[in-house]
Amino acid sequence: MDISTLSKNQAVQDTFPINGTDFIEFYVGNAKQTSLFYQHCFGFELIAYKGPETGSRDVVSYVLKQGKIRFVITSALDPNHEILSHVALHGDGVKVLALWVDDAEEAYYKALQRGAESAFEPFTAEDQYGSVKMAAIKTYGETIHTLVERSNYKGAFLPGYVSKSSPVKINPLGFKYVDHCVGNVELGQMNKWVQFYEDVMGFKLLVTFDDKDISTDYTALMSKVVSNGNGFIKFPINEPAAGKKKSQIEEYLDFYKSAGVQHIAIATDDIVHTVESLRNNGIEFLYVPDNYYETVLDRVGTIKEDINELKRMNILVDRDEEGYLLQIFTKPIQDRPTVFFEIIERHGAKSFGKGNFKALFEAIEREQELRGTL
């Protein structure tokens, strides 16, 4: 199977309009400590909170913002709460990929008519700042898409939350928006979930990679990318492929105990500054050997960045017919080797760094070997 892309004249008819990613919610063991991690290491500002002080007796959530990105960090206070069951099974991970829509109720029922399974029915939450309508549908693993209609709301985040600011000065690192979110699914399930997004959401297949595109001598995976009409939402879906040793997808599934969100790609306009700041704050990245840079410009051509600066920061480069991109991947940001982040800067490129796949896979395999899971 060769790489395939959506033709420019191929119409995408979304089931319902999606304006972008509304928020991403993480279920974690200790929300206070995790929120401080994202504030100090990733430069997110605390903007809202709910907990016992606001009348929430069983759940605590911290809302963090940078650019157009909102992360919600949530923990449970009751040992019998489903959130703690989720954390016990999966470790810290992404529960909600929330989508900003014009009409949450209409979007929900259209999705159900097309085959979606309900996570929760539409409801309206209100406070002195207005009202928000929400509903949710299930996707791979225990991940859900919450549909958020917030045109009539002026508060900090959602009803039930109060405004809250970071206790110390936070230095934003230049994050702009969520570029894409990647899901890992079990062997044989990739096409099922691609079809889900096509049939239920009206997404179209944007690009396909097979095990010849994404492989090394030891491991391989297959991936398909679906996108909505305006391109604001892009979901690559990965599944394992046959290899001599255990792939990164199999390792993820072993530790996460189900399908789930593997990584979140965040866009920046100055990747050198962003990555240097992250490194200074203690964030670790996958390592690609220096010899990668000896031939990279022969492959990608002219770029405006200083290649020596990219080498110093270990940032990768790739090009497609639309332009080029710069990217780098963190190591997992929790003890289990599951969720990690990609930092990406695009200069016209619409692709996902196909030319870097081999180098990245080899870097991941070095980490797997250290963990004894390769």
Can you give a write-up of this model?
With 374 residues, the protein is of the alpha+beta class. The chain folds into 2 domains: 18-163, 2,3-Dihydroxybiphenyl 1,2-Dioxygenase, domain 1 (Roll), CATH 3.10.180.10; 173-371, 2,3-Dihydroxybiphenyl 1,2-Dioxygenase, domain 1 (Roll). It is built from 9 helices and 18 strands. The strands form 2 sheets. It has a 9-stranded mixed β-sheet with strand order 1-12-13-14-11-15-18-17-16, with helices on both faces. A 9-stranded mixed β-sheet has the order 7-8-9-6-2-5-4-3-10. The longest helix has 15 residues, at 357-371. The radius of gyration is 20 Å and the shape is globular. Residues 1-9 have low confidence and may be disordered.
Strand content: 35-45%
Span of the ends, CA to CA? 26 Å
Proper CATH architecture of the largest domain: Roll
> Fraction of residues in helices?
10-25%
Output the CATH class name of the largest domain.
Alpha Beta
* CATH fold-type name of the largest domain: 2,3-Dihydroxybiphenyl 1,2-Dioxygenase, domain 1
What is the succession of H and E elements? EEHEEEHEHEEEEEHEEEHEHHHEEEH
Structural class: alpha+beta
Question: Widest sheet: strand order?
Answer: 1-12-13-14-11-15-18-17-16
Number of separate structural domains: 2
Average pLDDT value? 91
Tell me about the biggest sheet? 9 strands, mixed
CATH superfamily placement of the largest domain: 2,3-Dihydroxybiphenyl 1,2-Dioxygenase, domain 1
Instruction: Please work out how many helical segments DSSP would assign.
Output: 9
What characteristic shape results from the CA principal axes? globular
Give the low-confidence spans: 1-9
What is the C-alpha radius of gyration, as a whole number of Å? 20 Å
Annotation, overall tally of beta strands: 18
